[in-house]
Write a structure and sequence with these properties.
The structure holds two protein chains of two kinds.
Chain A (H helix, E strand, L loop, with lengths): L3 E4 L2 E4 L5 E7 L5 E8 L3 E10 L2 E4 L7 E2 L9 E3 L8 E8 L13 E2 L3 E5 L1
Parallel strand pairs in A: 2-11
Antiparallel strand pairs in A: 1-3, 3-8, 4-5, 4-9, 5-6, 7-8, 9-10, 9-11
Chain B lengths: L3 E4 L2 E5 L4 E7 L6 E7 L6 E7 L4 E4 L2 E6 L4 E6 L8 E10 L2 E4 L3 E6 L1
Parallel strand pairs in B: 2-11
Antiparallel strand pairs in B: 1-3, 3-8, 4-5, 4-9, 6-7, 7-8, 9-10, 9-11
């Protein structure tokens, strides 16, 4: 089954304790992205990757890191989490398509990771 | 600043009725516009994707329209079902580098 998986699905942690949220897709997609969703603000892009070893910042990258060492995996790293990073996080993937103008291929979202930082 | 505004914020309709959701955007340059359905606590699911040259796209009971000149889009749901209860999100892309999400319309379909 074609899918995007995220782990963990729920996480409660304390300020400053490094954590990693994993994201994996089995569709051989080049493009992967991380978003956070907060009430009243909608989804905002954190980081995206157009292929292995190619990553770039989205709208709200502060406090986050990513890596893309393999095509299928795109982990989100919070080196020193703070309470303002409490949010619902989604990973997504799609085929890239030609050029850099953006893909018209369907984007598949993971089930989400609800993170609480106390 | 690029913005995507959706209206109404919330909507309650009777099962079987039709409804139309609106999306206005100021994103430029424009690459594509997507409509997603998001059930509470779950990831968004793609309904339609339209590029600049497309002005309508259907997916079952969902029909999206796009007017690139006025920068407006609508999502029309025909013969609503209880399972249509969800948030509907409009997303406009400049490309991979910039993706702007609307805050969504929360639709509730009641029997």
């Amino acid at each position: 089954e074609a899918q995007v998986t995220q782990n963990p699905r729920y996480l409660i942690t304390v300020t400053g304790k490094k954590l990693t949220v994993t994201c994996s897709q089995n569709m051989n997609h080049e493009y992967m992205s991380w978003y956070r969703q907060d009430p009243g603000l909608g989804l905002r892009q954190i980081y995206y990757s157009m292929n292995v070893e190619v990553t770039d910042k989205g709208d709200v990258p502060e406090g986050y890191k990513v890596s893309r060492k393999e095509k299928r995996n795109f982990p989100l790293i919070l080196e020193s989490p703070s309470p303002n990073q409490t949010s619902l996080y989604f990973c997504a993937s799609s085929y890239k398509g030609p050029g850099t103008s953006g893909s018209s291929y369907e984007q598949y979202f993971g089930p989400g990771t609800r993170l609480t930082v106390t | 600043k690029n913005q995507v505004e959706q209206s109404p914020q919330s909507l309650i309709i009777l099962e079987g009725k039709n409804c139309t959701l609106q999306c206005n955007y100021t994103v430029s340059p424009f690459s594509n516009l997507r409509w997603y359905k998001q059930d509470t606590g779950r990831g968004p699911v793609s309904l339609t994707i339209m590029t600049f040259s497309e002005n309508t796209k259907s997916n079952g009971r969902y029909t999206a329209t796009l007017d690139a000149d006025t920068k407006q889009s609508s999502l029309h749901i025909t013969a609503s079902q209880l399972s249509d209860s969800a948030s509907y999100i409009c997303v406009v892309s400049e490309g991979y580098q910039k993706v702007t999400f609307g805050t969504g319309t929360k639709l509730q379909v009641i029997p």
